[in-house]
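Practice problem: RNA polymerase sigma-70 factor
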Amino acid sequence: MQISNEDYQQFKPLLFSISYRMLGSIVEAEDIVHETFLKAYQIDEKQIDNKKAYLCKMVTNRCLDELKSVRRRREKYVGPWNPVPLLLEKTDDSDPSDIVLKKEGLSIAFLRMMEHLAPDERAVLLLKEVFDYSYSEIANIIEKKEENCRKILSRAKQKISRIEDESLNYERNKYTTNLFIQAFQMHNTAALLELLTENVTLYSDGGGKVNAAIRPIVSRANVMAFLFGIFKKVPKDFYFEVKNVNYQPAIVIHINGKVQSILSFYISNDKINEIYITMNPDKLPIL
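Answer key — structure tokens:
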């Protein structure tokens, strides 16, 4: 297949967007996109009617194969597993190459919920709900009948139905995040109780590389106790900033000049339902 530089620039964001959502890993997604383009060069152009569709099929099938080994690795993972945060610079649509990344299904909450889905459920849900492919296109990509794809989507949506309530309004969620920061800094328990749902759950991902809770922490009282406990141990020279992570506001904490952790949130109706603390150094950006 002839891949021009224009083709590469046009299709790379889409292919990365599919593979990152499928795998929740930046490095693995980039590797699969790279391998897909290398493999595409070896394919006879005469076999291909639509470059975009063919590349999407290639990258999706590579992700489905990769998920088999990924699942085995994550079964051995120490403590909760959070997706690798994607740190971005903008929240607007000024860069056309980024538009494909800005659709729904990119938040940490959504990606984490994807872990509850089987590989084919994950693929069908993304292709239909996020990328708006037709059932005939999806059937061609994953090589299943259209009717099967409809059933797979129904099953997938039942498993992650509650995530549909997630707010994706950046500015509104940033306001909630700032209220959380202010309440936390002032030890304002009443304000925190207003912001957190009764069964708020915190997932602390250290991957066995740093100290972290090895089980999810549930309830407002337990989550607040855990967070205040961490705050007491933080050195005085730490600082934080609210950054655009997966196109949602997140708290990026710096210690000794390095990113020490990233706090992301699942916010619904201006309430924090889940908190994801990613501390595994292998998942943190180097700024």
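Discussion: The first strand starts at residue 87 and ends at 88. Students who identified this feature from the tokens alone can consider the problem solved.
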